[in-house]
Amino acid sequence: MPTWIAQWGGATPGIGMSIFFTLSGYVIALSYAHWNWRERPGFNLVRFFFYRFARLYPAFFVFAILIIVRSPSLQDLSNPEAQAYLAPHLLLWQSWLPVKYGGALVPDDLFHVSWSLSAECGLYFLFGIGAIVVAALPPWQWKSRIVALVLIATVFALLQTAWVMRGDLAPDGWSSGDWYLWLFAFSPWGVSIQFGIGVAAYLLSSSALFQRFARVASDLGAAGLVAIYALCALAIVWEQTTQAIVVSLGSSRPEEAQARETGVWSQ
């Protein structure tokens, strides 16, 4: 690949999935935040997972069958090693814990791209629990917005603590790079920051004040994404987590009215 193309195509690892996870947080909140999480928390949590399962798992199951067909080591279901490999992948929790499969991190194992579905399922769990907690708290002005921001700040602090304590927390044989990639890029706990920014954007967009400036905020966010992409490609913003956060902020402009007009919420 020519160097000038690689500069613009390969120096932005924190961008693509960050936009996906941020928009996912916005759309999930737009679709499910209005449910009665206070009166029927258990029912709504089960219903929420059933809806997401029905949308995601059938296509994933076809993908999983193809992976098993092309991977002889996974075809002997009586083999404990095959069982240990398949169980977390078929349950879509392979990215939740710091585990290597066949010596590879989740995006490089046999199920490769399905790591994002695993992270997404973890985010659904966090969203459901968060919705129940917010609904159970006594009402006050800006409750959901304040709680969302507090939760984002708490998760960020916990992630930083996990990074500082990587020597004690990382599995044997893991390098700092392995721990960094799993913690911040592939686990649902790391990408929950981006998802949470999307949820917070939805909560802000539901206020009359932000709806007045939704179009301007959307245009500024789009221009910001172009500028951030250029800064990443030029290696001015080069660290993957930093790229992810700034792109997430650029993607999360409040635009509920526009989302409803274009049918984004139905996705």
Structure in words:
This protein is an all-alpha fold and 267 residues long. Helices cover 69% and strands 0% of the residues. It is built from 13 helices and no strands. α2 packs across α9 (188-205), α5 packs across α9 (188-205) and α11 packs antiparallel against α12. The longest helix is centred in the N-terminal third of the chain and has 29 residues, at 41-69. The protein is globular, with a radius of gyration of 20 Å.
Name the descriptors.
267 residues; mainly alpha; 13 helices; 0% strand; disordered C terminus
Instruction: List the quaternary state of the chains.
Output: single chain
Shape: globular
Our count of helices gives 13
Number of strands: 0
Strand content: under 5%
Total domain units: 1
Secondary-structure element sequence? Answer: HHHHHHHHHHHHH
Describe the secondary structure blueprint for this structure.
Layout: H1 3-9, H2 16-32, H3 41-69, H4 80-90, H5 115-136, H6 143-164, H7 166-169, H8 176-186, H9 188-205, H10 208-212, H11 214-233, H12 240-251, H13 256-262
